[in-house]
Structure formats: structure tokens, C-alpha cells
């Protein structure tokens, strides 16, 4: 209606922007604007479209050029077919129908156009107006008519057109009964569009009625034809007249996102398949009425209101606040082309800005301005816009946008044929040119339509949820226009329960009254003579290890160690390392690991921050510490035989809420930060490891990681708490694949915690005779490596584990069961007594499958960062979902999403932190250090390469 109104105004000589219509509060005000414009001298009136000579080679419009090029690229394809199937009940006069089709074919040159290449360039030729034969199939008396109709309709819709020979329209009548037919009408998009379909149905109805009654042709002659428009467009768009439109689109779409990163159920294939399906949408009369009132109140169209809601949904799903959505524009800005059949439709790229936490009212105004501005610059063909903006071209998605919104508000394409009842015949044929295409129209008192989707990307259940989100957002908008769009809860109660409760039902019993060393002491009582630790050619039984640790612990108590006292330990990987760790815990203290291989500056920073008065150090460690030129510590060699009591110390003031260790991780300020972990979280870890990995006295575990890295915690303590044998791996074994493999085989190792980088280049390695469980931790696990390990180690188990230091080593795990069907390697489900939340930037749960930041709650959340109260308050938050006022959760900074089965997928960081060979590195820390150099003004640090080859 707006297009027709503005065309009438343009015929009066006033080419007004569409925004003028919306800015006018009444018809009289709009009339005043027209009068004002006519009184001013203006050169903005578009030149008239004039007839051109009909030569052998006529020009294509820009849209036709693009479609012709795509046809050459894709070959024979039904992607751009427009099928229409109608069931006709009543006496059909086939002769009148044939004559009506012939008249329509003769009337519109677009339908008679064919496209031929001359010297490699496409041109249009017009076929004679001899008509199009209407096919006829008689199914009367046959069996399974419905099945045959479905097959015939699908085959008709897919049957190819030859653009060079034509005709590019087919009409077939299938007779089902004496008074019932199915009309199959298919066109190629290169000669038609949605507006044209309305023209076609209206004119065929009029022509059929005229022939049926033996009346003259009722249609008025056409002033111009489609080739005249194509020639006019080629002339009009080669000059400087559209400089402002070119500049508008160049500026508006500058740096637009290449892809809307919607969560998909399947990996994006290398090339679009165009296979689609759809989910119906019906907005009930109550909601439709509310949307009309809301739109009228704010001076916007229903299209703008729904676009606003749809933009919010897409933003919440993708995690992006810069959304580009395509929408078709009729592009019938001249009165004389309104009655023409042809490809006139243009596509507008609407860029919606959702940044800054707008309210519904604010965002609606943004969408209104965006839509009106785009329509004010709609003359420039989309093909030209793409050339101007030059977005990256990829075969697996459309350029500029991947989501289309079609509002079908042109005249209803209804059939009223003489003595016939016409009803649509459902199409069992779906094409999806985009990732998503939302199509809506007003139907009586409701808004109806569908959400079409690419089946190569999405499952139906996912799209059904999207439809639900849209309906929820529309209801929320009309109910509270001042609410922040980010505050709207899109989730249904069922989905909210699933994400926050069902998938977090991880409650399990664990010893809540025991500290870590208590678990070890209980095991000593059960298996005193079993081998506890092996280090090269040396070993210790459980009783020997306990006695040595107790002796050292009593010495530490005598030096003043008590609960929460921090004790440093700087030793090489040795039996003394295990003795020292246990002794510190038995004395009630918390150990601070100091790997003597670390850079001296890092050790200096840790010792300065932790300020331990006592450091356990072997010969190597003592030399490193003395070189740091710090104030003297009390240093004790854990390898020394100190004598004294070997009985288990009894620290009555010690509880499971006291610190077990403080491990330092990378920090953005250039200084490492100490994470304070308490006993109860590690005890819970040990219990879960026991049940999930079947650990017992027959198990043999390796100690692979540096004890300054938190993965060492889940190597050492489960082993010593459950009667296993812990094998300490020296660097000569750890860093050589073949030596490592020989060690695993020789010692019949059952469990290995390892980084994927170590296994990356594994080849020509023999199978292990002992079924071994490989727990992959420290960095992302590539799918290719999983497949390689599955082939190389068919009798072994592969577990992918995830967890930040701040939540006691591990939070989720995933066990590889069968061959991967895609390249997604999940990080799994939460550990026992852990809770996982995937939240948006405003702390709200994201929809299932959407990208969000992972928050971890439950047992094992760290006390915080040592001496960093501000950072602790920023990263350790109250847990609003646990139903416990004292519950806390940790904000990881990791981006994840849920799979439909409840497994999580790790997607990366939302800050400057990376992992290299299992170590967490803050790029900002390195940049801060570089900035300290007087000759460096600016510094940027990036990580390049993959896995073992990853470098800064």
C-alpha cells in the first residue's frame, strides 16, 4: 500500500522519501508535505521509463545478471524456481484455461524472455507470443492418487529450465476426478517475483473468466515492458545520479560482520546445499492485536516491530550486538511498472545496532530509522551494494547477511475462478537460500507464516525453539516497552529448568569431614606395604612415605606452621616433592609450588606475593631461591632425614575449609595471581575420580605435569588416596614420545593425564598391551587427534577434561565412545557436585545451543585470589541459581555452548588469555612487561600455530 501511495505522489512530480509518510501524523499533514515539495523547484524526479527498440539482443537488469551468473556457476538447479500448486474443485474448462495462459504469455515479455550469451555476455531475446502449452495428466481411476500427486508436484517443482531456450514458465493440469484438478504452475525467478505472482493470479482469473464467458480481453494494454525497465536501469545506474545511495550503503555496511554466528546443530558444510524445511508460525489474535496497538502507538509498521523482536532473538542466540538482516523490497517505485510481471524485487541489508543495552522503545526507534533509511536508498540494486561493500565471498554462506525476513503485505494471491473453488496444495518441496528465512503475513485476525531453515545446519527442534523465543520476545515488548531488551527472559520454563537444574543434577556423596591428607592416611592403614610412588629406580611404600611425611610435618609444626599458613616448596620432580607436599598438608599448612625450572622473575613475583616464611627446597631449589636476592627464608630440604615422631599429626583446628594449596596462574597486569584452593574441593575431586575412572590399588598413574600446574593435583592426590601407584616422569621421558610410550608399556600404566600437544605427532607407536585411560587436559582437543588415537589405541579410553584452576582443576569431562560424526569434540558434562551455567553478558542464561560465558558453581570454587580482593570480587560472584544464599560461582571467561544432548563445547576465550601446551598465558601480562622497556611504545602479543607448534 505504501509503495502504491508513494508512486501516485511521484506521478505528481513529488519524489518524497518513505520517511515523510511515517513522519506525518495525519493525511492532511502528508498532503502539506506534498504541496511544499511541489512548490519548490526540484530536480529529484526520476526520469521516465521509455520504450526501447526491440533488437535481437536486449539488456538484462542487474538482478537478472546476478541470477544468470549463478545459473552458470551452479549449473542445472531448482534453487531459483517459484512453484505454485492450486487444487481446483468444480467444472474446469480446459480450453478457456489454455487461452488464458496464452494471453498472459503474450501480454508479458518477461515471461517470453530467454537468456543467451553473445561473446560471453548475456543478452535477452523475446520469444514469439505463440503461447505456452498447458500439460495435462489424467489420474482418474488410478490407485494411490495422493502419493502420485506429491511425487508429480515435487518433480514439477524441481524440473530444470533451460534459460537459453525457454519458456521459463510451465503450466500443468492434473485431473484427479471429473470435477477436481491440481494446477501446477512453475516459473524461474529470473522472470518473476512475489509481487508478480499476485499479478499473475489476478490476471489469469480475469482472462479465464473472459474466455469462459466469451467476453473480450478485460486487461488494459501495458505502457512498457520489462526490457524497457532493464534498459532504463542500466542507463540510470551508470551515471552519477546515485552517488548518495552508493555512499550510504558503503558507510552503513562498513565493517559489518561477515557472518551471524548462530549456534548450529551441524557444522557448516563447505558449500551451501540449499535443502530446507520450515516450522509454521501462528501469532494468536490477542498477541496480533497487541502488536498492532503497540506499532500504532510508536508510529511504526508491524514489520518494524517484528524486526525489532527478531533482532533481539538473533542477538541473544549469536552473542553479537551487530546484526544484519536481509529483507526484500518490491522495488516498484514507478507507477508504470506496478502491473508488470518480472524480476523487480530488490534486497535491502538492514543493519541493526543492539549495543549499549537499549530498552525496547530505544531499539524500536533504531530499527525505525534503519528501515526508513534503507528504503530511502533502495534504488541501488543489491548486486551493486555487494560490489561496493566487497564482503568476503564464501561458498558456504550468502554475503552480507544469512538471515532473511520477508513480510508479505502485497495483495493476497487468491484464486476466484468461474464456478471453481480454489485452495492451496501443500508443497512437499523446500529450498532454503539462507540459514534462516522468517516469512510472515497478516491472516484475518492473526499473523501467520513460517521460519524456513537450512537442514544442513539446524534440526527442527532447534527451529521450534527459535519460534518460541520470537513469540516470547513479542509478548515482552508489548507488555513493557521500557524494559531493557537484554533483560528479557526468552527461555520457556521447561528450557530454563533443563539448563539450570536438570543438567546440573550432579549431587553425589563425598567425605565432607576429611582433609586431603586424611584420605592418604586412611589408605596407608589399608595397604601399608603397597608401592605408593616410583621415581626412576627408587620407590616408596605407603607406610614409608607416610613416616617420612609425618616426620617433616612435625618439624614444620615446630616452626610455626598452622592452618592456612603458606609454605613454599621449590624442588625437582622427586620423592622429596611428594614427601614435602604431604608434610605441609599434615602440618595444617597450604603448599605453594615453585618449579625451579620457572623463570627467576616469575619465582620472585610468587614469593613476594605469597611471602612464605618457610620454603621446602632441595639442592636445586635452594640455589634458585638464593639467586633471587630476597630476604632469607627458613629453608628445609624435604629429602633430609629429620628424625622425630612418625605418627600422624593431629591438628584439631584444621577443617576442610582451610587452604590446601595456592597455585599461581598468569595475570593481566604482568604479575601472576595466586588461586587459593581449599581441602573440600580436592576431596570431592578425588571421590569423583575414583568412581569415574575406576581407580583402585591395581591402578598405576603417571605424574606428568609440573607440580606448579594444577593438573598435577588430579594426578597426585587421587593416586595416593586410593592405593594406586604414582609414577613420577622425568623430563627425558615426558618430552620424548617413544620413551614415554616405552615407559607406559614397561610399567603397565593404566591412567595418564596429558596435553594433546604431546600426542599431536604420535605415529609409528605400538599398541599398548595394557588398556590405558588417557585424560586429555590443559588445552583444546582437536577432532583429528581423537580419530587418530581411536585408531592407534583401540583398547584405550580417551577422556577430554576441562576446568580452570579456580574451580579445583577439573569441572567437566567427556568420554569418547564412538567415532566422531563431525569435528566437534565436547568438553562434556559437569563433575560431581559442580554446577555449570552458560550466561550472556548480562548474566542471563542463554538459549540452548547459544554461545555464552561459562560460570562454574558448586563444590570446589576457590576462596579467591591471594591479596587481590578487587579481582576476587570481580571473578567470584554470588550464585543466583543455586538456591543457597552462600553459594558462589566463578566467571571463567571461556565461551561455550550446550549441545542438544547436554554436553558442552568449548569455543575459546572472551579475553586475551590463551593456553599454550597446557599453560594459561595472559597476553596482557606479556604486553605489560614489554611496555616497561623504555624503547617500546606499543606492544601487541598474539598466539599463532596449533598445539605443539603454538607460539607467541
From TrEMBL:
Record bears the keyword Phosphoprotein: yes
Residue span(s) of domain AMP-dependent synthetase/ligase: 520-866
Signal sequence coordinates: none
Phosphoprotein listed as a keyword: yes
GO biological process, one term: amino acid activation for nonribosomal peptide biosynthetic process
GO molecular function annotation: catalytic activity; phosphopantetheine binding
Condensation domain location: 57-499
Keywords carried by this UniProt record: Phosphopantetheine, Phosphoprotein
PROSITE patterns given in the database record: AMP_BINDING
Highest taxon in the source lineage: Eukaryota
Protein family (similarity comment): Belongs to the NRP synthetase family.
The name this protein goes by in its record: Amino acid adenylation domain-containing protein
Classification lineage: Eukaryota, Fungi, Fungi incertae sedis, Mucoromycota, Mortierellomycotina
Amino acid at each position: 500500500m505504501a509503495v502504491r501511495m508513494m508512486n501516485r505522489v511521484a506521478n505528481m512530480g513529488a519524489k518524497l522519501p518513505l520517511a515523510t509518510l511515517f513522519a506525518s501524523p495525519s493525511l492532511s499533514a502528508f498532503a502539506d508535505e506534498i504541496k511544499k515539495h511541489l512548490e519548490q523547484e526540484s530536480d529529484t524526479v526520476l526520469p521516465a521509463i521509455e520504450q526501447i527498440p526491440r533488437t535481437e539482443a536486449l539488456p538484462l537488469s542487474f538482478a537478472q545478471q546476478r541470477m544468470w551468473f549463478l545459473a552458470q556457476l551452479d549449473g542445472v538447479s531448482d534453487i531459483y524456481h517459484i512453484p505454485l500448486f492450486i487444487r481446483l474443485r468444480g467444472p474446469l474448462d480446459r480450453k478457456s484455461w489454455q487461452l488464458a495462459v496464452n494471453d498472459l504469455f503474450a501480454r508479458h515479455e518477461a515471461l517470453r524472455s530467454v537468456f543467451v550469451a553473445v561473446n560471453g555476455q548475456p543478452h535477452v531475446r523475446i520469444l514469439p507470443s505463440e503461447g505456452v502449452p498447458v500439460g495435462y495428466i489424467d489420474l482418474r481411476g488410478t490407485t494411490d492418487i495422493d502419493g502420485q500427486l506429491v511425487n508429480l508436484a515435487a518433480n514439477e517443482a524441481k524440473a530444470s529450465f533451460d534459460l537459453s531456450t525457454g519458456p521459463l514458465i510451465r503450466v500443468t493440469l492434473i485431473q484427479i476426478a471429473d470435477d477436481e484438478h491440481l494446477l501446477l504452475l512453475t516459473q524461474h525467478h529470473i522472470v518473476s517475483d512475489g509481487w508478480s505472482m499476485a499479478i499473475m493470479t489476478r490476471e489469469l482469473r480475469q482472462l479465464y473468466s473472459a474466455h469462459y464467458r466469451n467476453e473480450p480481453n478485460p486487461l488494459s494494454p501495458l505502457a512498457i515492458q520489462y526490457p524497457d525497465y532493464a534498459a532504463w536501469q542500466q542507463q540510470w545506474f551508470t551515471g552519477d545520479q546515485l552517488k548518495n545511495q552508493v555512499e550510504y550503503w558503503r558507510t552503513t555496511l562498513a565493517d559489518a560482520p561477515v557472518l551471524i554466528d548462530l549456534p548450529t546443530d551441524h557444522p557448516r558444510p563447505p558449500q551451501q546445499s540449499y535443502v530446507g524445511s520450515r516450522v509454521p508460525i501462528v501469532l494468536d489474535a490477542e498477541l496480533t492485536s497487541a502488536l498492532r496497538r503497540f506499532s500504532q502507538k510508536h508510529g511504526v509498521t508491524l514489520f518494524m516491530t517484528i524486526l525489532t523482536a527478531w533482532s533481539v532473538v538473533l542477538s541473544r542466540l549469536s552473542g553479537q550486538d551487530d546484526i544484519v538482516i536481509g529483507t526484500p523490497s518490491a522495488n516498484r517505485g514507478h507507477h508504470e511498472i506496478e502491473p508488470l510481471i518480472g524480476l523487480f524485487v530488490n534486497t535491502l541489508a538492514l543493519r541493526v545496532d543492539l549495543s549499549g543495552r537499549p530498552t525496547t522503545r530505544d531499539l524500536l526507534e533504531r530499527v525505525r530509522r534503519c528501515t526508513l533509511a534503507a528504503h530511502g536508498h533502495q534504488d541501488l540494486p543489491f548486486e551493486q551494494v555487494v560490489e561496493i561493500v566487497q564482503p568476503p565471498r564464501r561458498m558456504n554462506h550468502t554475503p552480507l547477511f544469512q538471515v532473511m525476513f520477508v513480510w508479505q503485505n502485497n495483495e493476497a494471491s487468491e484464486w476466484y475462478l468461474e464456478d471453481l473453488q480454489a485452495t492451496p496444495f501443500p508443497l512437499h518441496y523446500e529450498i532454503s537460500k539462507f540459514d534462516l528465512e522468517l516469512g510472515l503475513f497478516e491472516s484475518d485476525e492473526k499473523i501467520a507464516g513460517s521460519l524456513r531453515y537450512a537442514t544442513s545446519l539446524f534440526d527442527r527442534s532447534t527451529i521450534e525453539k527459535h519460534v518460541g523465543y520470537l513469540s516470547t520476545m513479542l509478548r515482552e515488548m508489548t507488555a513493557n516497552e521500557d524494559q531493557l531488551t537484554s533483560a528479557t527472559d526468552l527461555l520457556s520454563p521447561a528450557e530454563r529448568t533443563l539448563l539450570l537444574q536438570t543438567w546440573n543434577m550432579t549431587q553425589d556423596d563425598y567425605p565432607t569431614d576429611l582433609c586431603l591428607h586424611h584420605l592418604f592416611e586412611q589408605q596407608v592403614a589399608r595397604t601399608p606395604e603397597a608401592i605408593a610412588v616410583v621415581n626412576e629406580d627408587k620407590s616408596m611404600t605407603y607406610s614409608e612415605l607416610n613416616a617420612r611425611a609425618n616426620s617433616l610435618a612435625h618439624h614444620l609444626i615446630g616452626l610455626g606452621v598452622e592452618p592456612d599458613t603458606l609454605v613454599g616448596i621449590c624442588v625437582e620432580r622427586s620423592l622429596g616433592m611428594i614427601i614435602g607436599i604431604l608434610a605441609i598438608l599434615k602440618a595444617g599448612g597450604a603448599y605453594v609450588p615453585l618449579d625451579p625450572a620457572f623463570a627467576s622473575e616469575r619465582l620472585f613475583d610468587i614469593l613476594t606475593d605469597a611471602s612464605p616464611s618457610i620454603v621446602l627446597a632441595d639442592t636445586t631449589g635452594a640455589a634458585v631461591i638464593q639467586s633471587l636476592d630476597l630476604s632469607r627464608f627458613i629453608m628445609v630440604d624435604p629429602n633430609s632425614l629429620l628424625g622425630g615422631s612418625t605418627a600422624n599429626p593431629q591438628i584439631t583446628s584444621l577443617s576442610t575449609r582451610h587452604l590446601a594449596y595456592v597455585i599461581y596462574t598468569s595475570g593481566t597486569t604482568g604479575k601472576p595471581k595466586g588461586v587459593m584452593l581449599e581441602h573440600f574441593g580436592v576431596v570431592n575431586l578425588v571421590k569423583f575420580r575414583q568412581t569415574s575412572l575406576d581407580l583402585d590399588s591395581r591402578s598405576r598413574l603417571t605424574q606428568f605435569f609440573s607440580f606448579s600446574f594444577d593438573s598435577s593435583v588430579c594426578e597426585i592426590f587421587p593416586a595416593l588416596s586410593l592405593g594406586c601407584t604414582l609414577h613420577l616422569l622425568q623430563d627425558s621421558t615426558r618430552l620424548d614420545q617413544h620413551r614415554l610410550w616405552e615407559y607406559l608399556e614397561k610399567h603397565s600404566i593404566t591412567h595418564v593425564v596429558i596435553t594433546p600437544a604431546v600426542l599431536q605427532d604420535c605415529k609409528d607407536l605400538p599398541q599398548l598391551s595394557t588398556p590405558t585411560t588417557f585424560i586429555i587436559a590443559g588445552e583444546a582437543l582437536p577432532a583429528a587427534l581423537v580419530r587418530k588415537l581411536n585408531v592407534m589405541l583401540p583398547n584405550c579410553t580417551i577422556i577430554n577434561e576441562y576446568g580452570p584452576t579456580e574451580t579445583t582443576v577439573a569441572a567437566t569431562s567427556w568420554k569418547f565412545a564412538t567415532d566422531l560424526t563431525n569435528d566437534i569434540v565436547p568438553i562434556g558434562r559437569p563433575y560431581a557436585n559442580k554446577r555449570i551455567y552458560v550466561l550472556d553478558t548480562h548474566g542471563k542464561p542463554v538459549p540452548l545451543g547459544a554461545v555464552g560465558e561459562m560460570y562454574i558453581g558448586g563444590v570446589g570454587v576457590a576462596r579467591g585470589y591471594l591479596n587481590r580482593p578487587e579481582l576476587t570480587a570481580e571473578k567470584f560472584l554470588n550464585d543466583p541459581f543455586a538456591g543457597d544464599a552462600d553459594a558462589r560461582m566463578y566467571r571463567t571467561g571461556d565461551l561455550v555452548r550446550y549441545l542438544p544432548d547436554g554436553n558442552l563445547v568449548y569455543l575459546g576465550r572472551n579475553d586475551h588469555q590463551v593456553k599454550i601446551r597446557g599453560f594459561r598465558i595472559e597476553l596482557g601480562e606479556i604486553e605489560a612487561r614489554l611496555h616497561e622497556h623504555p624503547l617500546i611504545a606499543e606492544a601487541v602479543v598474539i598466539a599463532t600455530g596449533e598445539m605443539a607448534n603454538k607460539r607467541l
